[in-house]
Design a protein that fits this description.
2 copies of one chain form a homodimer.
Chain A lengths: L18 H9 L7 E3 L11 H36 L6 H19 L8 E6 L7 E6 L2 E11 L1 H9 L1 H5 L4 H18 L4 H5 L1 H32 L9 H10 L6 H10 L3 H28 L9 H30 L8 H21 L4 H19 L2 H32 L7 H29 L6 H9 L5 H8 L5 H23 L1 H7 L8 H6 L7 H18 L6 H4 L5 H7 L2 H5 L15 H12 L1 E2 L5 E2 L12 H9 L2 H10 L13 H13 L1
């Protein structure tokens, strides 16, 4: 019963290949060396594979349906919570709970025995090619590589098909679900307070994340050493693994906190600091972790690693940044045309350009997620101004919806995976160490940096702000996506399990305690004139003013219809060039020069005006609720918070729901008509 | 160098299995029979498969990028065409041309040699399981079945990797791209004229499509017989294949024609007949073709087939219809709640419910596309009225965008595939026969049915309408998706190639000649009061009136907030039940009883009013263009068409572009505020 088997791989024909195999290469199709195993039993030759494919398709549909229904359930419960004004549990936390429940059911209640669909071909092929052709009794079937499976999983596959079925390819998170989330974050980053605090945000995001990564890495290495000493370590765990863990848990995602900030209209500077930091440190963490992974094969614990990795990561980062910036600008130039007559075309183009940024970056070997982030930021700053009002609404609503769906899907999958992932390694020492390290890493990011930044800032980051930022260091979608990406080794499995717990804890405990923390830290609400006026000079302005002037006088007029015409800003000698670059619309706009960022000119008068269009609104009872300029009293205590909680609640809840991230706030002053329309909508909804 | 190979499949353990294999089953893991081929050469044991996976991912990104850029290019050119008012080429035709160009480049200009990524494991395994585990030197890799490849393709794979890379899994069209298109069609079917012509539309869609399918099938069978006689046939071609071909080319898709109708405001009844027929015959064609395929294995040419297939298809059709209707109603009931306060949640829920309809239908073994169609129709009729005005806009815009992207993607892929598909079988006799059969099949659908329908209709379908319907029998996305789904056999390949040509011809020639055909057939434009009044009684009304009354008095009040409160429509004895089922809002609405379908009550006064909100608009020069009631002269000649072409062009182009399918028209009368807003938008854009 011995069978002949000639096999080989076309992928890596190297010198180690035996002579016989070389011969077989010549005998068979030039570049194709096929393994022919002939078996005597060919009775089942004409099995209806279509039936099986259909069955598999139906099963897939049913599995996906489970997730869709999970999301539907989440939405209905969120609605209930919003309706009843429960603020202790955010939709993402809720999605995780539902995910957990479904995970428990799948794991313990339903036991679908293997549907006998798998064949294990255990051939010592020298490589695992991306595509495999299997010759089944003369018919060729194409198989694509899904991924490596650990030895233990091979038996699991036969054990519970259902669990494996609901497991998504980890790359799905990175290539499908994360991009809309990150893009949406970048797209809604166009906030006046963001640019005002740019220096501090960059410091927290870049320096802070790197510091946090290394602190956590070092602490975890100590922890791992301890575990090795007392024999609690079941596999390899290198220093690079520790650093990798540090990088992935350094990506904060305070979506829960920000949603509450938004509902309660918490101080805009604190909001900008937190949001800006969380958006940018995602990018830093991705690049950092990928550069750490990239260097892993060279040496497991060499000290030359760090400088090289930093250099490489810095290089990648710069490349991605400039590449996506260029693309974003290109999009801006494209939408500069009269496409604004056709909102559908415009929205479609906008969507495609954002997506192609991601794909282009991935095709070039950059990190698509980072490219998409900066693309979103550039588009919000320039392209958005070129869009027709209808397209502005459409794009915002589209990305808002995509963000909402992707985020809730990721969080519910997170809950699910706690029970359905089969290779969890829960090590108590590692978990305790990780929680400690995450806490200390965050502290080492926030407090020393705040101290240093306060030396340069005119308006200091107060200690209650620092505590709040410390507290708001939630871990979320990005941390999860990075940790699930590779769970092949023991170290990675332990990291993944621990990361899950960190995410759960921070989202539920820190997220749920935000309102308590806010009132405990006596964080004031925004709005009062006095507070605003105080915060206008908080950043050392010279760098900022140079950039602003350049952007306002040259970039905006060239790339958008807003801003002053170039003929006014360029010297007289450049007249013809200026006339050629300026669109007719820019002249029309000349009288209404105040574009969306005009309050960046640190002019006190502007600020009251800039807030004017978002705060005055009518609540359910028809009473006039005004958090801002109208009621110009300094509200600097938790009494105000309580009052806000009790009184203006209905209005705030509505606004908070309509836009999970505060986009209303970031809009440019629209033409009078559409502003009136928005007001109307608010009163109608 | 002989290697031991034990192999087996866990999927179909049948009696034909040899004793040795049974033994090996016991020896190894209970349900797992693995084939262990041990090779001596394991020098390349630790090959970095990650590198290859990364490379493959980058390549995939680049391939997808090609399509995205193709779509971008299409959008830019469409914009140019719309801007310059070229009406001879629709965006779908344009997408095909660009696809063709890229296909030529990929086929002849770029030659990427195989990247040596494939290994052919030619084992006489008895089945092709959905999942394959390959043991590569101790590590297990999971492979998923992509599909069967014909023998000739195996060499092609080595030949040009690029071509194979840009080939999508045919199921992508059915499971990802088609659903939004079909859903959007159903969602925009809420037209007063559709319900007025319901009887005729159902006759064309059901009877007509079946007639057309059998006529084409019979003609093609004659053609195939002829080819067999003169030896032009290179493979099997059964009668069921002919019928299958008849079914797939019976699905019409006059998207090009309808876009022009919409721009030119062509007669609303003709529009409703064409659009309604095309939407429903897609569903009929899908079910028909799948039932024909389902019966193929039993007997290739048996005559018992037909009755059975019809029975089965009828059963499936009824099941799918009732299932999706139930789901649609369920969605309506869900959105009946106060979710309308939160547009984002509402839109997300709406989207998820539509998607779950598709998945549920697929999981139950129904046809998801058909389910989605009826779901869309039900949602447009009931759920839409429950949505908040903002969600109504959001959902429409979302599905409009998805439809636009999916449609253009399919058409550009169609162009691409003419050159990149490797197994084309172009047979001149078959092609000529097919064109003839398609023409005759369409004629056998339209003319006899119109004659029969005219016997019962008060207002006849005039002969120029019949010619126009004949002419507008374009084939499009559905025909393509059905024909590319299976291209394994010779017959299917010949069908696929021929279908492509039919689609190209009809979209370019018939689509491009629509305006000429309209003026040649002297089709009048809608609007003139006289014409409208004439067409109000065109359908034999008894069936319609019964349905309308039931729907208006009972279904609408129960399922939506619109319509009269049940307390008014139900007999007095049902008072408590009625009060319990009626929402408070319905009472509020009582004074504004005229809901979106109120003009279905064949009341002449309504019609002028119903059109009032869409036709008065200002064109670019500020002059008052009014296609409808204001200028109430009977415009019944091609002079009018020419006038419309020359004069009201700008306004019409804008409207036609904003909504490729006429949704403006199908909206319910919104509260006064939002209607004013829409007007403003039109003037602004």
């Amino acid at each position: 019963l011995g069978r002949n088997a000639n096999m080989g791989s076309t992928c890596e024909i190297n010198a180690a290949m035996s002579i016989w195999r070389r011969l077989s290469l010549f005998v068979l199709a030039s570049s194709l060396c096929s393994c022919l195993c002939r078996a005597e039993d060919s009775a089942m030759e004409n099995i209806v594979t279509e039936k099986k494919a259909e069955e598999s398709h139906r099963q897939d549909s049913a599995d996906l349906l489970v997730f869709i229904l999970l999301l539907t359930l989440t939405i209905l419960t969120i609605w209930l919570f919003k309706h009843r004004r429960f603020r202790f549990l955010h939709e993402t936390g809720l999605a995780m709970i539902y995910g957990l429940l479904v995970g428990v059911v799948l794991r313990y209640a339903i036991h679908v025995p293997s549907d006998m669909n798998n064949v294990t071909l255990s051939c010592n092929v020298n490589a695992s090619p991306a595509t495999l052709l299997v010759n089944v009794s003369g018919k060729f079937y194409e198989y694509t590589l899904k991924g490596e499976i650990s030895g233990s999983e091979v038996n699991d596959i036969q054990d519970n098909e259902m669990l494996r079925k609901v497991t998504f390819d980890p790359e799905v998170f990175f290539n499908i679900l994360l991009p809309p989330i990150i893009f949406h974050a970048g797209y809604s980053l166009k906030r006046r307070h963001f640019f005002r605090n740019l220096g501090s945000i960059l410091a927290y995001a870049f320096v802070g994340t790197v510091v946090s990564c290394f602190i956590i890495g070092l602490l975890m290495y100590g922890c791992v050493m301890l575990m090795k000493q007392i024999g609690h370590l079941g596999g390899d765990f290198f220093f690079t693994d520790c650093l990798f863990f540090g990088a992935i848990v350094s990506a904060t995602d305070p979506v829960t906190v920000l949603a509450i900030f938004n509902e309660l209209q918490v101080d805009a500077d604190l909001y900008a600091l937190l949001f800006g930091e969380s958006v940018l440190n995602d990018a830093v963490a991705v690049v950092l972790s990928s550069s750490i992974v990239g260097y892993q094969p060279e040496g497991d614990n060499s000290h030359t690693f760090e400088a090289m990795a930093m250099l490489k990561s810095f290089g990648i980062f710069l490349g991605v940044f400039s590449g996506s910036f260029a693309l974003g600008v290109a999009t801006g130039v494209v939408t500069f045309t009269k496409l604004r007559d056709f909102p559908l075309l415009e929205t479609a183009l906008f969507f495609l350009m954002s997506w192609s940024t991601f794909l282009l970056a991935e095709a070039c070997g950059f990190t698509g997620v980072v490219a998409v982030l900066f693309c979103g930021m550039t588009q919000a700053h320039y392209t958005f101004n070129n869009l027709s009002p209808e397209s502005q609404d459409r794009t915002k609503q589209l990305f808002e919806l995509l963000n909402f769906l992707a985020e809730n899907f990721i969080f519910s999958y997170m809950g699910l995976t706690l029970f359905t992932f089969k290779n969890h390694v829960f090590n108590p020492i590692f978990i305790v160490g990780a929680f400690l390290a995450v806490f200390l890493g965050r502290a080492a990011n926030i407090y020393p940096l705040s101290f240093l930044l306060n030396l340069g800032r005119k308006y200091k980051i107060s200690s209650n702000f620092q505590h709040m930022m410390m507290f708001a260091g939630l871990r979320g979608a990005m941390t999860f996506a990075l940790s699930i990406r590779d769970t092949a080794t023991y170290a990675r499995q332990m990291m993944f399990s621990t990361t899950l717990l960190v995410v759960f804890f921070t989202v539920w405990i820190c997220g749920g305690g935000t309102t308590q923390m806010l009132s405990c830290q006596k964080i004031r609400l925004i709005g009062p004139d006095g507070v605003e006026r105080r915060s206008t000079k908080q950043e050392s302005v010279w760098f900022f003013r140079i950039w602003y002037n350049f952007d306002h006088n040259y970039l905006k007029p060239i790339l958008t219809h807003s801003g002053p015409p170039l003929t006014a800003t360029l010297p007289a000698c450049c007249g013809p060039l200026a006339r050629c670059l300026t669109s007719p619309q820019a002249y029309e706009n000349e009288e209404q020069l105040k574009d969306s960022d005009s309050d960046l000119i640190l002019n006190d008068g502007d600020i009251t005006l800039a807030y004017g269009d978002i705060t005055v609104s009518t609540d359910a009872t028809g009473a006039h609720t005004s958090g801002t300029p109208v009621g110009g009293v300094a509200v600097n205590s938790d009494e105000a918070l309580d009052r806000e909680l009790a009184f203006g609640d209905h209005e705030l809840v509505i606004r908070g729901t309509r836009l999970v991230l505060p986009m209303d706030d970031s809009e440019p002053p629209l033409p009078l008509d559409s502003r009136r329309h928005r007001h109307k909508n608010e009163t109608m909804s």
